[in-house]
Amino acid sequence: MISRPKGTNDLLPDNIWRWQKLEQLIREECARFNYHEIRTPIFEETGLFQRGLGEATDIVEKEMYTFDDKGGRSMTLRPEGTASVVRAYIENNLQGTGLPVKLYYLGPMFRYERPQAGRYRQFHQFGVECFGSSEPSLDAEVIVLAYSIYTKLGAKNVQLKLNSIGCPNCRPKYLEKLKEALKERRDSLCDNCRKRSETNPLRVLDCKEKDCQPAIAELPRITDYLCDECRDHYGKVKSILKLWNVEYVEDSRLVRGLDYYTKTVFEFLVESLGAQNAVGGGGRYDGLVEEIGGEPTPAVGFAMGIERTILAVGDSWQKDPDVDLYIVAIGDTKDAALTQLKLARDHGLKAEMDHLNRSVKAQFKQANRLNAKYCLILGPDELANNLVKLRNMQDGEEIQLSLNDWLGGIK
Ligand code: ATP
Ligand code: MG
After folding, report:
1. pTM over 0.85
2. What is the pLDDT of residues 85-125, one digit of tens each?
3. Is residue 327 within a helix (H) or strand (E), and if so which, with residue range?
4. Which residues are within 8 A (CB) of 156 and not within 5 positions of it... i.e. 6 or more apart?
5. Last residue of a domain, one of 250, 280, 313
6. Taking a C-beta distance cutoff of 8 angstroms, is the pair 353, 338 a contact?
7. How far is the CA of 325 from the centre of ligand 2 (A)?
8. For ligand 1, is residue 100 a contact (CB within 6 Å)?
9. What atom of ligand 1 comes closest to residue 308's alpha carbon?
10. Does the C-beta of 221 come closer than 6 Å to ligand 1?
């Protein structure tokens, strides 16, 4: 017996309804915010992610599923959505469709990670990307779109963390100070942080090692080094969030693992999830489109982890009944049952009947198992008089209706 690859999941019917519910809400919210779906390939040329994410990121360093195809080209299963959407934006000249271009995606991502609760090798993300404007109102819009989905899902303890990580004007000065401070504290840092101090010093702020925390707490804060433009932008994002009644916590240690972010960064956390508590995050990436070969184009986006979001809130959701109507056939009434089954489905009811020649008792049991709201009971004597019985499965009440007219009885 061959089992599924490590770190992957089979999504089975007893849970998939949560996925469908979340996906439906995502599509509805995106429509309200005027974001439009884009579907890009699951694999891309490896160079796209190397350029788009940066060589010194966890993803590119150790998490990518990279393979040579039969033509000898290096391909990679997408580890995230933004680089592909940016590539598609440039390649399809989407800027010509009118700015800002507001896109969303939903689908599987692949990262070679150590599997644990909330961390998988194939996982799913919903994300939005908005191109063509550096206005803080769009940073706020992306945040509010995500926030609104978490709220409508019933997530109560979602915390929004917010920061600004500056731009190519102000960040180099900060990075210099940061590197100096890191050098002074080299002995108090883990191996990983020592390495990052050279390759990607911002990422040290992100380290989860307990022993590194005292040193990290003493490091300079990026928000003290923002240029006027970045400070003003950050202030406006915050005031729009206030205008829209979105609560946030500022966290000057918040950085994103990806190199292309500028100005706004944010993350959504759910404490009850434990170690894997980030359910989504995003930010502004004004440098990425140019990095990937397009015209300089400001952009802002967000990605939500679907598995973690469902882990965080999915238990409180109510599943819709599997069927509205179960047809119980007594005696030799199967043909009549098949006719009524088709009729019910044609009229938009979720309907089911027995296909295993079950006893009448077992048919009712099956109806209960499926949470049927009604049972349509077909007995030979009644049918001979063009009559059927309709049982309300909640209160057990039964009424007799004409065979031609029982649908009206349900309505
Ligand atoms: P983490 O710090 O937990 O590794 P990340 O910074 O790598 O997260 P992003 O690249 O920002 O995550 O992806 C956005 C969201 O996707 C995360 O907040 C998380 O909810 C989800 N996510 C990321 N990696 C995984 C994974 N391996 N399995 C399940 N969900 C994931
Ligand atoms: Mg990660």
Report:
1. yes
2. 999 999 999 999 999 999 999 999 999 999 999 999 999 99
3. strand 325-329
4. none
5. 313
6. yes
7. 46
8. no
9. 20
10. no
Closest ligand 1 atom to residue 111 Cα is 27
Query: Ligand 1: does its nearest atom lie under 6 Å from the Cβ of 80?
Result: yes
Cα–Cα dist 340/95, whole Å: 53
**How many helices (H) does the chain have, and how many strands (E)?**
15, 16
Let me know if residue 220 belongs to a domain: no
Query: Which residues does 383 contact at the CB level (< 8 Å), separation at least 6?
Result: 333, 336, 403
Ligand 1 center to 305 CA (angstroms):
6
3-class SS at 300? strand
Instruction: Give nearest CA residue, ligand 1 atom 29.
Output: 119
Where in the sequence is the domain holding 151, given as residue range(s)? 13-170+226-313
pLDDT digits (tens, 9 = 90+) for 212-268: 999 999 999 999 999 999 999 999 999 999 999 999 999 999 997 666 789 999 999
In a domain, 176, yes or no: no
Instruction: Give me the phi and psi of 196, to 5 degrees please.
Output: -65, -30
Does residue 27 sit in the same domain as residue 86? yes
Between the alpha carbon of residue 216 and those of residues 147, 188, 196, 250, 275, the distances in Å are: 29, 9, 13, 17, 19
**b vs e for 173-183, b when ≥16 Cβ sit within 10 Å of the residue's Cβ?**
ebbebbeebbe
Band (206; pLDDT cuts 50, 70, 90):
confident
Same domain, 331 and 297: no
CA distances from 275 to 7, 171, 389 (A): 17, 29, 55
Q: Tell me the percentage of the chain whose pLDDT exceeds 90.
A: 88
- Beta-bridge mates of residue 327: 353, 376
DSSP structural state of residue 9: -
Q: With 0-12 CB in 10 A as exposed, 13-18 as middle and 19+ as buried, what is 265?
A: buried
CATH number at residue 137: 3.30.930.10
